[in-house]
């Protein structure tokens, strides 16, 4: 093969390429800002006399309307729609119900479900969705989050390789293939990949990840003591410190034949200075039950009160307290409700009225625990019961409430909501059918038609908006615009690397080093190179830069260029060694991980990824 000489344009592109890698590695500026700057720089360079061939200025911004970028936007909107209807939350509840307290079983359930979900939505979105789920499971089972979060995060990354819409590199791949085809003769041009062409490789990788943590998790996963459910716990600590309030919820089992049957909520709360925040009867849960409700058996009660008061209530009726929340684990979980502060403002219509008069629970969904007035704290143990105290301007009520009720009160002039650090997302379970229908329509269009991927996905995204699963503003908010600008801005650099012959020149250098080696060895070297690139820069950037290079290397050794291109797109998901991937960064803090923890667990995973992916790529293709 003849030496390929460097031209002025190639030198400039190499310099821009080195600048790009340097900016990504050092993170002097955000990577999306760096990518935009590189795009603008290429445009300015190509505007100089004699350098017009570096990049076509007239198509410099075409990346923002590319198939890959529009597809990613649509995937994010569809994923947000499914989440908004509670589909993902329902999956989470199922995991907590059947997972038990066995670490390996929980790891298998969480990791497999996250892997499947991340094959149809951005893996960082799937990981973010399951972060509170893992926190809840950790609280209920006593397992440290550090034993659960890393397997979940790794499998979210691995799950992105199961379909061609599961990760940004795979979404981008077909566009890059089309771009490279423009510079190849007809007999060397590549075909685009179908939605499930990479599925066997992705499934094998997810299974490998799950088996890895089941078999070796005890050795590679750290045991870190973290403040599980930090927000919720810190809130309870705050109220305990300020008001001497125990906010723990106790689940009490009421069996048939107990003397408790027929007594009212009010009677029990008055006698035992407790608060019954929910009841479960006849397979239904009732939140904030009114005081005149009579207890029917068998049932479960969710009770808040001082430990000695709860014990006295339980002992007098021979009741059993469950060691953890069971019937109320979801409805009274930190994501559904908790303790909050509201203030009675001077213009409130409630001034002079008591909680009993206005039926606070039934009307507002508030179950008062403490009233703070002019430096005095009144609790249910005081002589003046909270329900009988007329409210005054400035009264602060500490209540147990659902977050949905609290969000409604923010618009009510009779209250000023002090607590702002609570989940405010409004789920729309009534729209679940619409969401699933449009998701399935998009999937059917991808599988059964020749329409472009972006158009198929936009049908689903538009259906989510048109059927009001999401508002248009919520759809805009669901899009990770930093990812969109990063991807769109790097596309011109990939074109410059290919069109100026820079990719061919680098390929010649690589081939000179690997001359005479088997094709699978060269393919493995490409996979290792992609892995190294994605550890120091974004996987999108690594894919854009390396796909043209891999294609040229494949053509140079007589291998399948499409296979080498897919090798790059798969290998740029091999980001486990250090927490540079968004998913790893997301789990690092809540899991209490250090870089050393990722290096210990990620080093083995990196090797397994390379071995399994190369083996499966060559077996499938």
TrEMBL record:
Cell compartment(s), UniProt: Membrane
SUPFAM superfamilies: TrkA C-terminal domain-like
Gene Ontology CC: plasma membrane
Gene3D superfamilies listed in its UniProt record: Regulator of K+ conductance, C-terminal domain
GO BP of this protein: potassium ion transport
Highest taxon, organism lineage: Bacteria
Record-linked InterPro entries: Cit_transptr-like_dom (IPR004680), DASS-Related_Transporters (IPR051679), RCK_C (IPR006037), RCK_C_sf (IPR036721)
GO molecular function: monoatomic cation transmembrane transporter activity
Database matches in PROSITE patterns: RCK_C
Keywords, sorted A to Z: Membrane, Repeat, Transmembrane, Transmembrane helix, Transport
RCK C-terminal domain residues: 236-319, 327-415
Location, primary (coarse class): membrane
Topology class, membrane: Multi-pass membrane protein
A Pfam family this chain is assigned to: TrkA_C
Membrane-spanning intervals of the chain: 7-25, 31-48, 60-82, 106-131, 152-173, 193-221, 437-466, 478-497, 509-530, 598-620
This protein's name: Transporter, divalent anion:Na+ symporter (DASS) family
Organism of provenance: Cognatishimia activa
Higher taxonomy: Bacteria, Pseudomonadati, Pseudomonadota, Alphaproteobacteria, Rhodobacterales
